[in-house]
Amino acid sequence: QVTWGTPTLVTINLALVFEFGARTRFFLLGTLSAVLPKPDLDLVRLQMNVAGGIDFDQQRAFLDAALYDSRLLNKFVITGEMRMRMSWGDRPFLALAVGGLHPAFTPPPGLEQMQRTAIVFADADDLKIRCEAYFALTSNTVQFGARVDLFARASKFSVIGQAGFDVLVQFNPFSFIASLYASLQLKCGSRNLFKLKFAGELSGPRPLHARGKATFE
Questions:
Q1: Short-list 103, 53, 52, 49, CA closest to 81
Q2: CA distances from 124 to 128, 150, 155, 170 (A)
Q3: Is the confidence at residue 210, as pLDDT, over 90?
Q4: Distance between CA 134 and CA 76 in Å, rounded?
Q5: pTM for this structure?
Q6: DSSP code of 106?
Q7: CB 39 within 8 Å of CB 69
Q8: Are 192 and 217 in contact (CB under 8 A)?
Q9: Helix count (H) and strand count (E) of the chain?
Q10: What is the model's pLDDT at position 46?
């Protein structure tokens, strides 16, 4: 067990396993808990399970982590995953993702279907607010994005909205794509009263393309 701070703010419990013989491997299993600013006033509580390993024969390494029982202000639930894959052999590769990857990027093995890093500010029948985000770094790209979803209902009227963005930057050859989207809808029962939707995209640099579309109902 490793702790940091007085009083303790971060606690790490680890199990280390070494394998020798036919294969040489190292494994790490554990939990990490961070309570801020102090244990009896946990405005931020982050707890995660961690599993990782290094295979020296295959020249590969991995690290997986998933949040559990994590909250902001002791009320708002925080969820998400982090994964890392690395190899240093004939074809060196590195991929680190917190909350997943860009929707247009083909995930490498082991990074498929990741859970976005998210916080739920409201989860009642009449009000739902959820925010999510991701950040990823690979050998040739950097990726990030965020999204917020809203649902509110009063009597027979309801409002549904969402907004977000996604960015993918490739280093060699250099290129980028950035998209932005948002929508807002007002309904009475199942009948649409008002709906506004926008989607835009910028890509380049050679050639540089910009396009957008807005619709109103």
A1: 49
A2: 6, 12, 14, 40
A3: yes
A4: 18
A5: 0.87
A6: P
A7: no
A8: yes
A9: 0, 16
A10: 93
- Locate 27 and state its tokens: 């494994």
Query: What residue has token string 């029982």?
Result: 69
Instruction: Identify the sign of the CA torsion 203, 116, 17, 32.
Output: positive
Burial 118-151 (b: 16+ CB within 10 A, else e): bbbbeeeeeebbbbbbbbbebeebebbbbbebbb
Structure-token pair, residue 205: 């640099």
Positive or negative torsion for Cα 62, 63, 66, 72: negative
Separation of alpha carbons 85 and 61, rounded Å = 6
State how far the Cα of 145 lies from the Cα of 180, in Å rounded to an integer.
Answer: 10
pLDDT tens track for 93-102: 999 999 999 9
CA dihedral of residues 64, 68, 73, 75 (deg, nearest 10): 140
**How many other C-beta atoms lie within 10 A of the C-beta of residue 113?**
7
Per-residue pLDDT tens for 135-188? 999 989 999 999 999 999 999 999 999 999 999 999 999 999 999 999 999 999
3-class state of residue 141 by DSSP: strand
Tokens 């909205």 sit on residue: 161
Which amino acid type is present at position 32?
Answer: L
Q: Encoding tokens for residue 99?
A: 């909350």
Q: Which two tokens stand for residue 7?
A: 């009083």
Measured in whole angstroms, how far is the alpha carbon of residue 217 from the centre of its chain? 33
Determine the Cα–Cα distance for residues 65 and 31; give it in Å rounded to an integer.
Answer: 9
